[in-house]
């Protein structure tokens, strides 16, 4: 399995996905939630990376012809993507908490 997706492609690909309405232009469509859709797209991509890494690990465990370094790279990419996702979540929560502490 040589279909390992680079993490930079994951991050750039989230903004270029045609199925996300409202992200092509600067003005989102009424009723659309661009941030939620982008975050959902990132979650799907991270899940896909973990699935790919899991399939590659299972192939390795079952003695299929898989190169060890490709399995390790896929697992590391999935881990880095998860770390990035957690950092984005933490920043969003921190920003929300800052807004809530502001006096009205």
Question: How does this model look, in words?
Answer:
The protein has 104 residues and is mostly helical. The chain has 3 helices and no strands. The longest helix is centred in the C-terminal third of the chain and has 34 residues, at 68-101. Mean pLDDT is 80; it is low at 20-26.
Tally of domains? 1
Shape: elongated
Q: What share of residues is helical?
A: 55-70%
Radius of gyration: 18 Å
Instruction: Please tally the helical runs, counting DSSP H or I stretches of 4 or more residues.
Output: 3
**Tell me about the biggest sheet?**
none
Helix/strand-derived category reads mainly alpha
Mean pLDDT: 80
Q: Uncertain regions: pLDDT < 50 for 5+ in a row?
A: 20-26
Order of helices and strands: HHH
Query: Distance between the terminal alpha carbons, to the nearest Å?
Result: 55 Å
DSSP strand tally: 0
Taken as a percent bin, the fraction of beta residues is: under 5%
